[in-house]
Write a structure and sequence with these properties.
Elements lengths: L6 H6 L1 H12 L12 E6 L4 H13 L4 E3 L13 E6 L6 H11 L4 E5 L12 E3 L11 H14 L8 H11 L3 H14 L3 E6 L1 H19 L4 E4 H6 L9 H7 E7 L7 H15 L3 E5 L4 H24 L7 H7 L1
Parallel strand pairs: 1-2, 1-3, 3-4, 4-5, 6-7, 6-8, 8-9
């Protein structure tokens, strides 16, 4: 198999890159360490999962946080806001326009990733994270750095680079984890996987995994948060089981921060799924804290899609559909 963009190499080096990025982010100088700001996240086109995760984690602690949508005008931004630009690339026109807008205010701006050219005299603080030709493989590294910056501003727990990176490296050696990824790759096969997660953490991981399946495997895939699935999606499995069993599979992403009672709900929903999809697979997170567990799910998603691409003889890097649309 050809891996023309080096996604496999980038995946193998992820624990080291996370360690390095967290170490750099931890050195960020905070001008007013006793002031907890409002956090505004401006994500690049490939960094939506970072914004989703930080909004969930910071919001769960009662912090003030929001993510900028692509069409949002940010003229309201003021000096009490800290703007976190994550993974903004030179081609992210909307995000660059938003950064130009906030650079004209008194807001504090922190850029995580390759520093995009915003304007001469730009005074943004920069946490350098070298990104590859496709940022989807760099999202876990960007997330670890962003969570560290948020913690520096009093909006999260301190991130220990060694604990996070070493924990991920250790998890990769876990035989149960390796077997679960192998089983999921075999079960999904050539079907269209529907990825499920619970709560904001599970929903973030599910959406990220779905995107990797789309891009690396060039296959249709879908994601849904368990609560939404039980309110809506479950009704759609009622009539065409003979067809859906041939077309769809299900992937359940589990973690220790699921809302109360979701063990029972997952079991009940799985009873429905086994009757209407080809196979049901499960990947369960390990790791310390919400960040460790989300990074573990993202890492398993990368391992899964790269394994599937190898088996299918596909180059996981280039996405011809993207090139056609941007042409």
């Amino acid at each position: 198999m050809t891996d023309s963009l080096g996604l496999g190499t980038a995946h193998e080096s992820m624990p080291r890159r996370i360690r390095d990025a967290v170490a750099v982010a931890a050195e960020l100088v905070v001008a007013e360490p006793d002031r907890v700001p409002e956090l505004l996240i401006v994500p690049g086109s490939s960094a939506g999962a970072v914004a989703e995760a930080l909004c969930g984690a910071v919001g769960a602690r009662g912090g003030r946080v929001r993510a900028a949508g692509r069409t949002d005008r940010l003229g309201w931004v003021h000096g009490g806001v800290t703007v976190l630009a994550v993974g903004v690339a030179p081609g992210d026109v909307s995000a660059l326009d938003q950064l130009r807008t906030v650079s004209e205010t008194d807001a504090t701006v922190v850029v995580i990733g390759d520093h995009p050219p915003v304007r001469p005299g730009d005074t943004a603080s920069v946490v350098p994270v070298r990104c590859g030709p496709t940022q989807r493989g760099d999202v876990p590294v960007l997330l670890a750095a962003a969570a560290t910056v948020a913690a520096r501003y009093g909006l999260g727990d301190v991130v220990d680079a060694e604990v996070i990176a070493d924990g991920l490296a250790t998890r990769r050696q876990d035989a149960t984890r390796v077997s679960a990824i192998e089983d999921a790759a075999r079960n999904i096969g050539s079907t269209w996987p529907v990825v499920h997660g619970a709560g904001w953490l599970g929903a973030t991981a599910a959406n990220y995994t779905k995107g990797l399946l789309n891009a690396d495997m060039k296959t249709p895939s879908f994601d849904v948060e368990l609560g939404e699935a039980l309110r809506s999606d479950v009704a759609g499995w009622g009539l065409h089981g003979d067809i859906t069993r041939q077309v769809f599979s299900a992937l359940l992403l589990r973690h220790d921060f699921e809302p109360a009672g979701h063990d029972v709900l997952f079991a009940q929903y799985e009873d429905v799924l086994v009757e209407v999809v080809g196979e049901v697979s499960e990947l369960r997170a390990g790791g310390v804290g919400w960040l460790g567990q989300l990074l573990d799910l993202m890492d398993m998603a990368q391992a899964l899609t790269l394994k599937m691409a190898i088996r299918a003889g596909l180059d996981p890097g280039p996405v011809p559909a993207f090139e056609k649309i941007s042409a």
